[in-house]
Structure of Cyclase-like protein 2:
Amino acid sequence: MKYPLAWLVAWCTLSLPLHTVVGGDDGKLVAYDDDVRILDISHRYHPEMPEWESEGGIGQFLWQVSRIKNGSMANSSLMKLPTHTGTHVDAPGHFYDHYFYASFDVDSLDLHVLNGPALLIDVPRHSNITAQVMKSLNIPRSVNRVLFRTLNTDRRLMFKKECDLSYVGFTVDGAKWLVDNTDIKLVGIDYLSVAAYDHLVGSHLVFLKDREIIPVEALKLDDIPAGLYTVHCLPPRLSGAEGSPIRCILIE
Ligand SMILES: *[C@@H]1O[C@H](CO)[C@@H](O)[C@H](O)[C@H]1NC(C)=O
Ligand SMILES: *[C@@H]1O[C@H](CO)[C@@H](O)[C@H](O)[C@H]1NC(C)=O
Ligand SMILES: *[C@@H]1O[C@H](CO)[C@@H](O)[C@H](O)[C@H]1NC(C)=O
């Protein structure tokens, strides 16, 4: 061991008060580090989380392949998960075949878009996100990242095993209005698709067309005050994947 025990004890003693765990899965506030507050806006992966167009949830997604109890040196598991499960990101190849073959996969996504100042806003609950709704939100031109909290959060759709296709998302004219009238590049939403189900293909095509906008879907926006934060979203570098689970946090 490189470091003596005394050093380890000193490190633990010093670092503990700085990392008091306040919340966790149910709480939203994960860590308190002096004046830095980290808010976790990613959903926890578990077998009963909803899977797109399915009734039964994602089901088993982890298989243990070696087990200490069975004499192995370590526990180790295999993971199998649809790429658009839980909190996840879409790459241009998701809806454009030529982008898929041109390797515009999740590894091509711009980390500058996925990290930086972000506005969390509440969308009127009576409607999908149409051009009229977008206009009414009065989002200033200089805003590049917006997390749209909708009726989906109120209905706790991400906590239900059955996929619910009556979720709220962007209509085609809402998506077009965003592209034409705002500088938004990161579009965050609180259910599995950024596009309303009746506008599934059309809205995705509008958002992904110029490879500038990155949809981040199924964000966990419960109980966080609307306002300005710094968002950090990091997708794993999956070559050839048109989507991927992503870990997102907000810093206050
Ligand atoms: C561990 O051993 C049990 C009993 O032999 C077996 O059923 C199980 O599949 C083993 N699991 C792993 C992960 O090796
Ligand atoms: C290894 O996996 C078993 C379940 O098979 C679990 O009970 C045990 O706590 C694990 N050990 C470690 C060190 O994680
Ligand atoms: C949003 O659109 C979906 C169909 O895409 C519909 O089922 C749902 O009722 C709409 N929601 C609202 C609040 O209008």
Confidence is low (pLDDT under 50) at residues 1-24.
